[in-house]
Each structure stands twice: as C-alpha cells, then as structure tokens.
Amino acid sequence: MDSNHSIDPMFLSNLMDRLHLRHSLLDTNSFLSHSLDDLLLLSDPESDADVDELPEDVKERSLLAEEEAKLEKEIIRIILSGNSDKDLKPNSGQSVSIGEHSICVGFHEEPGSEYRVWEWHGHLIIFDEEDGYSPEYIYGSYFERSERGW
Length: 150
Known about the structure:
The chain is of the alpha+beta class. The chain folds into two domains: about 10-50, no CATH class; about 55-145. It has helices at about 10-20, 35-40, 55-80, 85-90, and strands at about 95-100, 100-110, 115-130, 130-145. Strands 1-2-3-4 form a four-stranded antiparallel β-sheet, covered by helices on one side.
C-alpha cells in the first residue's frame, strides 16, 4: 500500500459499494488510484479541464451544492443576527422564502445542553437551460452554541 494513502483502497471500494456511493467524476473503478482526500474533497487530478467539458449531471450537482451552501450561509446569518423568530418562523410549521428557495425551519433544545439544534428542510429551485426550473429537496442543520445553556 502506498504510504500516501491513509486507508486501504479495497476497504474504501467495499465501503463505497455497500453505501452505493460513487465518485461523481468517474464512471469506473479508477477512483481506487486516488487518495481518500482526493475522493472526499472531489478534487479532480485533471482540474485544469474546462468546466464546460464536465458531464451535465456533474455541473447540475455542482450548482445544487453551491446554492445549498449559499442558503445555509444565509440561514446561519439570520440565526446569529437574532432575527430568527421573525425571519425564519421556527417551529411554526410555516415555510419561509429565502431568495427563490422555500424552507421550513425548526429548532430543539435539551435542558442543560450548551447547544440549540436548528434544522431545516425544503426545496431549492434550480434553473437548467434544458429542463427549466426544477425543485431539489434539501435538508440542513446547525448547532448554535450558548454561553448560558438553554
């Protein structure tokens, strides 16, 4: 085994098969030659390749991940601003719009815990030239730390 690899490639292959996971940029088992870090961070050894040359499904997943990250950042910004009751309507069962996206937010607290756990789910609206608008289901969570406990 190569000393650069921190995990056995056969173990990784077996684990990914059991979890039905595949590296999105590769259609064959050639991912076994890449390090675990490359695989998990989705770094492409040919990263100089033009984005237009990527398969369409990879571009769509990349756009989805980018939009999901923007939405998560905005939700956390609202939580930390102290305006969450008004802007997110947590635990109300009502959906709220953030940009073009619709989500439902809730939180729960454990007595004596240092954290409030925020969770959200909803739909991101993604536009594709070929398919038009399509909703993509998302789920996220954030652990808000409290100095005083809840």
